């Protein structure tokens, strides 16, 4: 799918983040993980009249048994069938393999994330710059990561190591790669906070903002108190404009289904309509809550002129 054939309300992450930063709110980057759950994310955003990002990572694609094309096809089909008019971004999250980025762009993703954060800085710059050159040539935004964001959810990333983002390195990284958005490590973690308390190093975040012009992304938004998110969004000169939320969606889905173990995409699709609808309703409620009480993006669809 090329850019000219996309629905008019499907935008790039760069476009969406610019509006969010100006309006001092953040856009939720929601990971439905299973293709049927895409519908719940879209319905919630439409009800809240909020811009939104629908995302999936390389590891999630592998774990849940989905291809980028299957995910994109379901996203665009539901945009049409649900008559979604609010601004939407289709984003490929944490990805380490260039072929997956290429496949996602060919399938219609409007934003991709290259994650070489475990590499030395020079190599991270080289790999990220290559992804930027390819994606930009196809009209697609690029997010990258500097530092290492910890995890308790190995579906999202490979390990639980943390390495906070250095502001001076962030400046060099952005200057040399040309990325549109930067995921920063400032204290949050992917997954559920079971031992450590969530925190955000606001001084570090502000120092990064002062040195870099790109839009900033906070990964590990599930479980972070709302006041922390609000403060991170409203930093002087613009703060966080994109917040990733994945684990909370799956937890609400599984709770509604009376399950504790993750399924594959095929297993979820095989559930009875009654069970699936209950799960989707729970996810929709969670997304609505995040938009309304966490991100500040409710009723901001009107910021976008198509």
TrEMBL record:
<dbReference type="InterPro" id="IPR013785">
    <property type="entry name" value="Aldolase_TIM"/>
</dbReference>
<dbReference type="Pfam" id="PF01116">
    <property type="entry name" value="F_bP_aldolase"/>
</dbReference>
<dbReference type="InterPro" id="IPR050246">
    <property type="entry name" value="Class_II_FBP_aldolase"/>
</dbReference>
<dbReference type="InterPro" id="IPR000771">
    <property type="entry name" value="FBA_II"/>
</dbReference>
<protein>
    <submittedName>
        <fullName>Class II fructose-bisphosphate aldolase</fullName>
    </submittedName>
</protein>
């Amino acid at each position: 799918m090329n850019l000219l054939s996309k629905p008019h309300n499907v935008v790039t992450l760069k476009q969406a983040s610019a509006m969010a930063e100006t309006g001092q709110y953040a856009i939720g980057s929601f990971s439905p993980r299973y293709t049927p759950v895409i519908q719940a994310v879209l319905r919630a955003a439409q009800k809240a009249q909020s811009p939104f990002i629908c995302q999936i990572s390389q590891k999630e694609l592998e774990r849940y048994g989905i291809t980028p094309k299957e995910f994109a096809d379901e996203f665009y089909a539901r945009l049409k069938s649900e008559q979604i008019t609010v601004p939407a971004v289709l984003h490929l999250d944490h990805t380490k393999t260039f072929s997956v980025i290429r496949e996602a762009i060919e399938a219609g993703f409007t934003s991709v994330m290259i994650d070489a954060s475990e590499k030395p800085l020079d190599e991270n710059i080289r790999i990220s710059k290559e992804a930027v050159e390819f994606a930009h040539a196809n009209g697609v935004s690029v997010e990258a990561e500097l530092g290492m964001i910890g995890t308790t959810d190995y579906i999202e990333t490979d390990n639980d190591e943390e390495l906070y983002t250095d502001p001076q390195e962030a400046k060099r990284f952005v200057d040399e790669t040309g990325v549109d958005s930067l995921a920063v490590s400032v204290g949050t973690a992917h997954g559920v906070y079971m031992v450590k308390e969530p925190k955000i190093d606001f001084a570090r975040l502000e120092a990064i903002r002062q040195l870099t012009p790109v839009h900033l992304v906070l990964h590990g938004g599930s479980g972070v108190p709302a006041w922390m998110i609000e403060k991170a969004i409203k930093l002087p000169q613009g703060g966080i404009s994109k917040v990733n939320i994945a684990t909370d969606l799956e937890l609400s889905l599984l709770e509604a289904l009376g399950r504790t173990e993750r399924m594959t995409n095929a297993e979820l699709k095989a559930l009875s309509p009654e069970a699936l609808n209950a799960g989707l309703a729970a996810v929709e409620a969670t997304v609505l809550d995040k938009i309304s009480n966490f991100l500040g993006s409710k009723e901001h669809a009107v910021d976008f002129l198509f």
